[in-house]
Amino acid sequence: MTSNMHLPEQRETSRNEQPLVEQQAADLLCLHDSPVVRAMYLGAGFVALFLAVLGAILPVLPTTPFVLLAAACFARGSEYFHRKLLENRIAGPIIREWTLYRSIPQRVKRWVYFLMTLSFGSSILIVPELWQKIMLVVIGSILAFYIWRIPVRKV
After folding, report:
1. Do the beta carbons of residue 153 and residue 103 sit within 8 Å?
2. Rounded to two decimals, what is the model's pTM?
């Protein structure tokens, strides 16, 4: 019974958030005047998105910077793909947070550290040479320091 009482409140909240999301998407959108340049931005956005997907699989290639780059390219190249990326349930909130506040949520930062530890740790165990292990530790440390420097906005 109590869960049904909260259902109208949840619907009302989602209705109130939808215009806000659409307004934020419109504010971030800045299509280029030239159709040729828009096509180039669109192509660069797809390349960045492809690299982001690879980054989710490969341990050393980052994901988030390529998703942000894809969002920036789509904002200048295609209203449709820009909106689709912002409506994505995983990438959308992160892109909006970064674009509006230049920060990432604390839960995302913890998730990034976990995935970095998992991917770099497994890679260090797999590679045979000592210099490769040292290189991975150095790259992982630099990346962890960079992530540590990104601010977390207090909500």
Report:
1. yes
2. 0.62
